[in-house]
Design brief:
The protein has 126 residues and is mainly α. It has helices spanning 3-27, 31-41, 45-50, 52-101; strands spanning 108-110, 116-118. Helices cover 73% and strands 5% of the residues. Helix 2 runs antiparallel to helix 4.
Amino acid sequence: MTYAPFLSLGLTVLLMILSLIFKIAGKLRLTLPLVYFLLIATVLNPWAAAHEKLALGILFGLIALSVISWLFALKNYLSDRSYYKALEEDMSWQIQRARERGIPFDSVYFDSQGNMRYNDTDEIVE
């Protein structure tokens, strides 16, 4: 009976570590390769031993898909970053132009497309 608390504590620590690993894998988009790895390491071990090349090929394929998703995410991030930088520069230019024309800033606003509009008429500031 003295082993029960240690067994319970060990199981709790193991589940916490497994939970942390799955949380990290989810952030890195590696959940599917992790689940497959755990399956071939435990339940599917006899099959994986008999078909080692296929099992590793599937694992590496899943990891390759994760890397491809990382590359697409990086491409989208860089594209969004350049878009927002261009939008910021355009808005700065519009603000400078409004200052030169003497337009008070409490009478204008920016819409969702980045156009400066008058508050009362919703017309674009020319």
